[in-house]
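Much of what follows relies on a compact textual record of a protein's fold. An example makes this concrete, so a full record is given next.
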Amino acid sequence: MFAAMKKWADREEGEYDPVEFYNKHYSGFNRSRLAKTDNALYRSLSKKGLLDIIPADKSMVERTRKIRRGPYRYGNDPLTYYRANHNGVTQNELKKVAPTLYEILRRRGSLKHVPYRT
């Protein structure tokens, strides 16, 4: 059904370039699939700083996007978001119902615009 894949550890004499070996035997594999299939080749590419030639896993790309999104889920101005969605909520209540928004406002020094008490 499938031809046996050649492993990096079983390469022939003269095959020393891990990028060329990847392109020849594993083209199209993403990083996690390569690591599971031929870990020696994956480690060789990693040690040489060449993992960028291998497509990233979709899950890894999605995690990176979520991390970068950070405070921008509240738009470029979290205070405007607060006023539109939580106007009149005190600092203590905001800390309970929207702790991330509270922390962003606190770090930016914008809590002075949120009432301390009602």
Observations:
- The chain has a mean pLDDT of 83.
